[in-house]
Amino acid sequence: MTTLMTLTRPPAQNRRCESIEIRSAALTRATEHFLTVRPLPGESPEQTLERMSDAIAQRGLTVLKQTLFASREAHAALPTQRCPEWPRTQVDGAGCAGGGLAGVIAHCVSGAEVERVRIDGRVVGSVFEDGAARFAVLAGILPADTGADRSAQARSTLRQIEAAVEAAGMELTDVARTWLFVDRILEWYDALNEVRTRFFRERDLFSGLVPASTGVGAANPWGAALTCEALAVTGADVSALPSPLQCSARDYGSSFSRAVEIETAGVRRLLVSGTASIAPDGRTLHVGDCAAQICRTFDVVEALLQSRSLSLGDVTRAIAYFRHTADAPMLADYLKARDLPAFPVVVAQADICRDDLLFEIELDAVSPG
């Protein structure tokens, strides 16, 4: 059974916190806040989460979702989350700097009432309104039966997303963004794409908006074939955007948009899908050269941002995925060499959807319209 419950929180008091990166976007009445938290030297995963929880409480924010990347051992050691009504996605993604916890991203809001979405008694989403726009933020979506075959689990997970957005008073066609964290992705990515394409065709998504998406290889503590997140919105102008430097992902069988833009009350949000070193004809570029793949990927991402008069300085949250943890320092080296602005990013180990891709990044950017 899927239900909603209502909570309220006071407005935020402060936007800054030492060692926690906070980016905020003012909407019509509410303000969204994106907190990116990485472990401090010598800090345990429990202490990192406690520090983030304290920052949220001090500012009077309501958490819409948390996304947590940690090693399997770190997941097992973590205590029950401090506030169980917070939707949370937990995926295996050890810190590339050597720690068990790579980082946590919290999507929060102030100045708005928040409803929680429950499926089978578990909180999996948050809903809030801002003027005419209504947002549903989903996290920790799992298949109904984690013992079923992979394709059945994939379809079940998509159906769970559909059930959650329907509980929020929306339709699957209102979903603007998905995240698919897929266990052993290289073994069955083609099958996953077939399930997704069939499901989208049945729901007639191809005649409207095809969501932006990330699909990376990361296991989860529940042993499911995948766990997912999603963002749905109504009452806003939502459109898919092409990439200036890449072909449509649908050209090679992946049913997602390169980016989606959401505009409401003069605020534009660009949601850039997981992006890697892929040529305009769909081929992988710079096979075996991670540094060159990072360079190509940022060329693609910056072209997308610039097409909407945005830059890396407008980024509110980002996740960088490395197939090999030893390659992770190359990201900082690249940003420093290019003198690019700092932006909040969690760096985690994950398999990319092709065995010759070594790096992928996803991000959101916000700017007044």
* Number of contiguous helices: 6
Helix content: 10-25%
For the record, what is the CATH homologous superfamily label?
RutC-like
* Count of the domains: 1
Q: Tally of extended strands?
A: 18
As for the CATH topology, it is 60s Ribosomal Protein L30, Chain: A
Overall structural class, as computed from helix and strand content, comes to alpha+beta
Question: Which key features would you list for this structure?
Answer:
alpha+beta; 60s Ribosomal Protein L30, Chain: A; seven-stranded mixed beta sheet; six-stranded mixed beta sheet; 6 helices
List the helices and strands and how they pair.
Elements: E1 2-7, E2 20-26, E3 31-37, H1 45-59, E4 62-70, H2 72-77, E5 88-92, E6 101-110, E7 114-119, E8 122-130, E9 133-141, H3 150-167, E10 175-182, H4 185-202, E11 212-217, E12 226-234, E13 237-241, E14 259-264, E15 267-275, H5 290-307, E16 315-322, H6 329-337, E17 346-349, E18 359-368
Parallel strand pairs: 4-5, 10-11, 16-17
Antiparallel strand pairs: 1-7, 2-3, 3-6, 4-6, 7-8, 8-9, 9-12, 10-12, 13-14, 14-15, 15-18, 16-18
Helix pairs in contact: 3-4
